[in-house]
Write the structure tokens for this entry.
Amino acid sequence: MRSIWTETAQIPRRNPLTGNKRTEVVVIGGGMAGILTAFYLQRHGIHVVVLEANRIGSGQTGYTTAKITSQHNLIYSKLEKTVGKETARLYGKANQLAVEEYGKLIKRYSIQCHYEQKDAYLYSVQESEKLLKEAESAKRLGLPASFVRETKLPFQVHGAVRFTGQAQFNPLEFLRDISAGLTVYERTRVVKVQGHEVVTDKGVIKADKVVFASHYPFVNVPGFYFAKMYQEKSYVLELEPVEALDGMYLGVDKKAYSFRNYGDRLLLGYGSHRTGKAPAENPFSTMKQVAEHLFPQAEERGRWTAQDCITLDGIPYIGTYSFFRPDWYVATGFGKWGMSSSMAAAKILSMQITGKRTPYDAVFSPQRHHLKASALKFAVHGLESVKGLSAGTMPGAINCPHLGCRMVWNRYDKRWECPCHGSGFEINGKICAGPAQQSIPFID
């Protein structure tokens, strides 16, 4: 599947790595987080190299709905309760500053990426109480939030949380320009990382520091990210023509939808489930029915799926990879908010790598422990992984090359998926999503 971004943005190709090299910092992953991290490191005078297994922006960055917002669903009331007001405030501030930084970069470098300032709304057609609580919490934490009763959606709502000063853009057009002055080696797959050596299928790079910005960290020990995250899938339908909405919308009900415009096209989002546990109903069929009802004049122009890493406490992991690897860094677990989180990660990591501290280090530290916020998800998703690993020991199982979980077939995406950690494989077994690093071995 191709997204509206991969169809409309052309990024010049970069050559693969040839032979061995030496640099100060290696960034693994050429998506939004990796490119922005390299961009800020280079501005600090650091010699940095980016390694990308496919093309710049070809991973999850190319399949986002590209909302640049600090409004991350019903998160602030939850964070206040589970991790405390100050941590929640710093989380919100880091993301709101990230939203503003995009605008500054786009203006400074005259980046043509269909950037538009848009308010962001959380809405419900069933109740308003949880939205009121979220608006009050976000406002208390210093965010541009308010509760409203009316929206411009083509149906009635009980209420909505409105964040002003947010934005949307074409992420690949942005990446095309912001990566122009960086050293990026495409079609160069990292095979393993040993200390300060990054081994690829094209050569070895020695570096003082290594940044893992590859969506899901593929080095299992140390770090143990496979035990601290899971992956979720969601679905997008592209419709045209649809009159532009006044903002970006996300529903908070059990069966709710996401809306954002791109010119006279509408990106309709729906569905969210753990990777490897596809719903009984085809999400695209459900969206088609909704589209025919709400936008009868529109036709389908495209469809795709997105996949996101989710941490147990809802906060991304940004910082030192492990106590045992002080020269390794990681940016992962962005949930469904990869644009603001990528910018926040790039700003934080570039400061840490150059020896400076930020007020946000402890908030996003991969070594943090928020037992109250993590316990329930650890139990639920830990059990799912145990089930997948156990099924992988059965005779005839098709096993994931990552940790051996039994693969399942996603009939909507037409690909194999790992129900434990979310690796994905095409019908012929070729790898298309990590953390696995190899194709399914039983297929040539």
